[in-house]
Amino acid sequence: MFEIRRYTAADAEEWDRLVAESKNGTFLFMRGYMDYHSDRFSDCSLMAYENKDNGSKPQLTAVLPANICGNELRSHGGLTYGGLVMSRELTIEQCLDIFKAINVFLRDECHVNHVVYKPTPWIYHSIPSEEDLYAISNTCQAQITAREISSTIRLDNRLKFSKLRHRCANKARRNGVEAREADDIGTFWHILDNNLTSRYGVHPVHSIKELQLLKSRFPDNIRLYMAYMGSEAIAGTLVFECGSVIHTQYISASPKGKELGALDLLLDYLINNRYADAEYIDFGKSTENRGHYLNTNLIHQKEGFGGRGVCYDTYEWTIE
Predict the structure, then answer these.
(1) Helix spans in 177-295 (H)
(2) How far apart are CA 257 and CA 227, in angstroms?
(3) pTM here?
(4) 49 contacts 64 by C-beta, under 8 angstroms
(5) Phi, psi torsion values for 255, nearest 5 degrees
(6) CA 195 to CA 192: how far, in whole Å?
(7) Number of H helices, E strands in the chain
(8) pLDDT (tens digit per residue) in 237-253
(9) Alpha carbon distance 306, 155 (integer Å)
């Protein structure tokens, strides 16, 4: 039997311990990451406790990062993916029971009648962890309502760079461009912001202060790599180390960096040197409008480095 409770700040340590020991969690689910923008979302994260018949203390078995919007529960709006974060021991039967209990709790305690659910893509699982997908289909009659695509490299079986990407990396090398880890979030953010505003008229999702805050909270997970021409930074990428997956959160280059192929050299360094022993590098999604629009220029660039498709799905269901 499972009891569902709504997360409170007093539960942070217990929540983080479950995430750290889970089979499908990443540091993005730690409260120090989730709560940095708590003013933007009405948090309604849930905690599932198993009550055993032997009289022992209820044991936290899974957590669900989420926020509430009217009568709808959504996988947390500050995260690209979410879903049920499960202990390594959790079984399919337990997962079925958890979602039955979640639906009852949402209906009776939160007055929620609709759920939008974004599971963690399989590449981020430390062991097979798709019990939730079976459970929401079987118990909740969930349906896929959006499918987006990311570009991912399996590093122990990676493809060669395309001729264009290889040629651009060599051009940067001939011009003396060098890649290394850096700590200048401000310089990188301005390169990124100038690029986004000139091309799309938008600013980065994270501000400089937010990125600096998150990097200070998770220095072992959030790293910045830059390409330099002498002392001038001309390209960079912010990397999120998520267990076996290296995720490039932002990638950008200055006009000079684009001209010299600095990003190609930088990614060549990350893929073939710095993270060559990792399992995956995930470049993130190249879609907009819930997957209906594919940014072909963007995905062609990622595919040129050897990235191939991993789907990021959204499921929805109605609670009767």
Answers:
(1) 185-200, 208-217, 255-260, 262-269
(2) 8
(3) 0.94
(4) no
(5) -55, -40
(6) 5
(7) 10, 16
(8) 999 999 999 999 999 99
(9) 10
